[in-house]
Structure formats: structure tokens, C-alpha cells
Design brief:
alpha+beta; HIT family, subunit A; five-stranded antiparallel beta sheet; 20% helix; binds adenosine monophosphate; binds zinc ion
Length: 116
């Protein structure tokens, strides 16, 4: 399931270090190496799924679980009430750079809308 050329699969396999915030049998969450906010965590599925376009109905539970994981982390980190942003970048125009789907959890500062 893991892809040799995928950075996040290599983190999952322990070949590249990461600052892990949470892990279970379905997902891993780790701190972004170039944080764009005081809290910037990436929640990834343990399955290699390249982009949001590659999710199918069989992944519905997994997708929901990624969002619930982000919600729990936000609560544990004490930012749930003040607010936080969840974000998926899909492909080129959205600025996706790592092609192993990840949910960004950003918190700890105000965010503007529309996003840049
Ligand atoms: P995206 O633009 O949505 O594909 O986001 C990819 C994210 O992965 C960026 O925010 C990067 O800073 C982050 N990133 C890249 N390499 C690493 C790494 N080795 N450990 C943690 N985060 C990383
Ligand atoms: Zn991967």
C-alpha cells in the first residue's frame, strides 16, 4: 500500500522523521515542517491516496474519520472554541505539493476569507 516515492508514506513507514501528534490504525497526524500558523498539523490516511479526487464511496468512513481526528486534536489543543481552519488542497491550482492526501488543521491566529 505504501508508495516508495511518496514523502508521507515514508513518514508512515518511519523512514523520515516527523513530530507525530496522533496515530492509530487508520490515520497519522504530524506537525507541518513549515507551519503557517501557531498550530499546523497534517492528518493523513495510512492508505496511500494521492488526492481528494481519488476518494470513493468506500473511503467515506475514512474521510469522516480524518475530520473527526482533526476535531479531537483541536479540542485537545484548546482551540476548538476560538476556531480553526480545516483545508484540503487538491491538485495544481489549489497548490497541492505532496500527493498523499492530507487534511491541514490550522489554528492559533485569525484567518481571512477568501483564502489567497
Ligand atoms: P500541500 O500544499 O497541501 O500539498 O501541503 C503539503 C504540506 O506538507 C506543506 O504544508 C509542507 O510544509 C508540508 N511538508 C512537506 N514536507 C514535510 C515533512 N517532511 N514533514 C512535515 N510536513 C511536511
Ligand atoms: Zn503515500
Amino acid at each position: 500500500m505504501s508508495e516508495h516515492n511518496c514523502l508521507f508514506c515514508q513518514i508512515l513507514d518511519g523512514h523520515i522523521p516527523a513530530n507525530i501528534a496522533y496515530e492509530d490504525e487508520r490515520v497519522m497526524a504530524f506537525h507541518d515542517i513549515a507551519p503557517q500558523a501557531p498550530i499546523h498539523i497534517l492528518i493523513i490516511p495510512k492508505q496511500h491516496i494521492a488526492t481528494i479526487n481519488d476518494f470513493t464511496e468506500e473511503h467515506q468512513d475514512l474521510l469522516g474519520y480524518m475530520i473527526l481526528t482533526a476535531q479531537k486534536l483541536a479540542q485537545e489543543l484548546g482551540v476548538a472554541e476560538d476556531g480553526y481552519r480545516l483545508n484540503f488542497n487538491c491538485n495544481r491550482l489549489a497548490g497541492q505539493t505532496v500527493f498523499h492526501t492530507h487534511l491541514h488543521l490550522l489554528a492559533g491566529r485569525p484567518f481571512s476569507w477568501p483564502p489567497g
